[in-house]
Amino acid sequence: MKKNSRYRQMEQVMTYVLLSDLAMFIIYLFAAGFGIIWLKAITAIIAILVSGLCLWFLYMTQELLKQRSFWMTTAAAAILICVLFSLILNFPSPNPFNELANTVSAITR
């Protein structure tokens, strides 16, 4: 019974950590989209570190490959992969609304 409550406690903490990591990723996307470089860098570093530390923690507790912890592993890996691919592909590009306005004005001329 004690192990089950310890797992539930870990599951609750990981839920809060992964939700905050998701919030960092969303802030990262907004910062990247609007071209706020310093905020993009800070949120990318935090999101990568938190996701990496979550995966490391699950590995150290031997929960990484267990079926009951699969959702935690998947969530941390998904956020990490999304941030890394977004950095590599430079997506979203700075201020997509500005590019759209230039395209529309060129069409109407």
Portion of residues in beta strands equals: under 5%
- Residue stretches low in confidence (pLDDT < 50, at least 5 long) are none
- The amount of helix comes to over 70%
Q: Total number of β-strand segments?
A: 0
Global outline: elongated
End-to-end distance, in Å? 73 Å
Count of individual helical segments: 4
The structural domain count equals: 1
Rg for CA atoms: 18 Å
Task: Summarize the biggest pleated sheet.
Answer: none
The secondary-structure class comes to mainly alpha
Mean pLDDT over the full residue set: 87
Question: SSE string, helix = H, strand = E?
Answer: HHHH
Give short descriptive properties of this protein.
109 residues, mainly alpha, 4 helices, 83% helix, 0% strand
Question: Could you characterize what this model shows?
Answer:
The chain has 109 residues and is an all-alpha fold. The protein has one domain. It is 83% helix and 0% strand. The chain contains four helices and no strands. Helix 1 packs antiparallel against helix 2 (37-60), helix 1 (2-34) runs parallel beside helix 3 (70-89) and helix 2 packs antiparallel against helix 3. It is elongated and about 55 Å long. It starts with a helix and ends with a helix. The mean pLDDT is 87.
